[in-house]
Structures are given as C-alpha cells and as structure tokens.
Amino acid sequence: MKRIFGLMVLGMLVCTVAEAEDAKYTVENRTDGKIFVSYGLGAVTQDQVFGTGSFSRVKSQGWYSLEKGESKELTFPRRYLVYIFAENSDRKWEGKKKDQTAENFCVYDGKFEYKESENRNEEECKSQLGTEEGKNLRWERFLKVKPGTIPVEE
C-alpha cells in the first residue's frame, strides 16, 4: 500500500514538473483591424554520434481570429521552438526569407491542424493539392518567437 501511495505521489510530482515546463505566449493584436493568427511548433534533435542537430516541423495549426486590441494566450511545452504567422486582408506578419531563425509551415485558408508528415517540406504540403482542401494550401514563412508578449503591429 505504501508503495502504491509513493508511486501516486511521484506521478503527481512528475505532472507538476511537466506543467512547470510549459511556456506562455500572448499574441496581441495592436493593429487597426481583425487579424488571423496561426502557430507552428518545431523541434531539434541531436545526433548522439556526430553532435549535429536536425530540425523537424512538429505541427502547424490555425486560425485564431483576434479583433483590434484583443489577445490570445497560447501555452506549449518548453521543448518546442514556437513560430507565429499572422495575416489580414492587407498584410502578412511573417518571417523574412533570409532570416535563419524563421521556418516554413503548411497552412490552409480554413481551420487546419497539420502534423509533421504534412510539414516536412513544401512538396509534402502541396502533395495534397489534388484534394479539395489542397486548393487552398500554402507554404508560409513563420517568425520564431520567445515566451512572453508577441505584439502584432502595423
């Protein structure tokens, strides 16, 4: 009985530590109108033999609509690199082509959630072009962000 109780306490401690590992990101709409926000998650794995890292796009998801002055809090485990892409009818807030910290992710004009297999590269993203959904797929450049407030401004 003591052993089961000990395991339960250990399990609760592990869950508490895992929750403490999450990072909060607050996207704020500081523009004059409505914007649409999506995010991408990336991970770097280290090769134990050669000491080199490889990047993988774990997930992309959107859209969150934010009215002028509105904000959205997103929480992710700290093990992920977090990227944001926002747009409205006039403009895109994105990573620049030459920015080495920016990454591309697959997005759809409607609500979407893409896993690693659809985000490997532009070809994988656009391989769905023959589908109904594929007509509106795009390979967009996301901006890498740090935990905290992320202002989307004019």
Features:
154 residues; alpha+beta; 10 strands
Verbal overview:
- By secondary structure, the protein is of the alpha+beta class.
- Helices cover 16% and strands 49% of the residues.
- The chain has one domain (23-153).
- The protein has 2 helices and 10 strands, in the order H-E-E-E-E-E-E-E-E-H-E-E.
- Strands 2, 3, 5, 6, 7, 8 and 9 form a 7-stranded antiparallel β-sheet that branches. A 3-stranded mixed β-sheet has the order 4-1-10.
- The longest helix has 19 residues, at 2-20.
Blueprint (SSEs and pairs):
Elements: H1 2-20, E1 22-30, E2 35-46, E3 53-66, E4 71-77, E5 81-87, E6 92-93, E7 103-108, E8 112-115, H2 122-126, E9 137-145, E10 148-153
Parallel strand pairs: 1-10
Antiparallel strand pairs: 1-4, 2-3, 2-5, 3-8, 5-6, 5-9, 7-9
Order of SSEs, N→C? HEEEEEEEEHEE
Q: Write down how many β-strands occur, each being a DSSP E stretch of 2 or more residues.
A: 10
Helical residues, percent: 10-25%
Question: What is the count of DSSP helices, taking H or I runs of 4+ residues?
Answer: 2
| Main pleated-sheet profile | 7 strands, antiparallel
Into which percentage range does the β-strand content fall?
over 45%
Q: Give the low-confidence spans.
A: 5-10, 12-18
Look at the structure and give the mean pLDDT.
Answer: 84
Gap from first CA to last CA: 61 Å
User: Based on helices, strands and strand pairing, what is the structural class?
Assistant: alpha+beta
Summarize the structure.
The chain is of the alpha+beta class and about 150 residues long. The chain is about 15% helix and about 50% strand.
